[in-house]
Amino acid sequence: MLKFKNFKTKHAVIDFGFANREDEFHYQFARKQQAILVTLDADFINNHNYQLEETFGILHIKAGNLPTWDKINQVLDKLMPLLKTFNDLSLKNSKISASLEGYVKVILKDGLVKKEQVMW
User: Fold this and answer.
1) φ/ψ (deg, to 5) at 28
2) Other Cβ atoms closer than 10 A to 85
3) pLDDT tier at 28 (50, 70, 90 boundaries)?
4) Backbone φ and ψ of 76, nearest 5°
5) How far is it, in rounded angstroms, from Cα 102 to Cα 119?
6) pTM score
């Protein structure tokens, strides 16, 4: 979905073969690549384990217990207008968690919640 919106994307498993790797590996890889980490794993929202100031942003997608590409794309499609309010998708110093039901939470680097509401 992001590729169709002209965003440069890489998939950890499809593009790099990083299947069955630990969360810390993906976190560090995204940091070294200066990339936004897009994930289905809620563990990355924990700022104690995954420091925000060390990343270029984290986007957590909640697409149900059995996520499908269709559900993930639904969340991303609805989230795009909000993401455009960030400087060209620069989520540096932010973590965003968004659900299929429209619940969106934006966390800043100091741990403050900037926005926590139903958006759609």
Assistant:
1) -70, -40
2) 9
3) very high
4) -60, -40
5) 5
6) 0.81
